[in-house]
């Protein structure tokens, strides 16, 4: 099957143009450097050492959070990120406490220890970003379209690892941190899972099956968390973080990848800051995209709530 990645070719249910205005770069009204977060404001980011998690962490630092717990599997990556956070804090003239925790979201004990360290240091968490994620390993022989991503269930031999990181990892993080989010009553109590607009696709050369299934399930997981823990104040969001060149995507081959992976690497972080700087119950349990215009999104509030939009449903 030939792949057509053009924006015009995407079906409406992908939600690409849910707001008429589409952003690939940070618009001024959500620039984190122009935001001042409440104090205290504690943020935890998994998969923070590289890619989107790195830039999401910097966005919260730029917005003046009081504490950042950064987690990844590589200590040296965390050291480099902590150094950049320190520079941002110095430039702002503020203090940001940084907690570095080496943790693998595939490990129950690592995730439990991350929660324990955050609880001991601050006794609260305002925003939990379940960002750690991977895509299936490349295949040796590209398809006729030039894609080096595995096509179909037979080629996608990376199923177990991808599901354990992208889905079970989000489940482990959610299970560990929902109680602390529930206790942090004076904050946004926000859980954000990194999902993907690409999960709407059933073309496996674009989204390998393991990745697709993990992200679809992650969206439903956020809906369930919102339903089950909303009365405790917990909000949960499934975030499309844009189409970005990251360590996971930089070696994608074939097709129009250079045109697709064109979003600003800082856009997702800026959107996260906007999403969580205050309570937004009307968006909790839903899919959101960092490419959307927030003013136009807010104008759709009544429509979203009345129609129960931005959730997975079967068309019958």
From TrEMBL:
Ion transport is among the record's keywords: no
**Is Transmembrane helix found in the keyword set?**
no
| Keywords tagged on the record | Oxidoreductase
One of the record's GO molecular function terms: oxidoreductase activity, acting on NAD(P)H, oxygen as acceptor
Task: Report the SUPFAM superfamilies cross-referenced here.
Answer: NAD(P)-binding Rossmann-fold domains
InterPro entries reported for this sequence: NAD(P)-bd_dom_sf, SDR_fam
- Spell out the family assignment given in the record's similarity comment: Belongs to the short-chain dehydrogenases/reductases (SDR) family.
Protein's recorded name: NAD(P)-binding protein
**Upper taxonomic lineage:** Eukaryota, Fungi, Dikarya, Ascomycota, Pezizomycotina
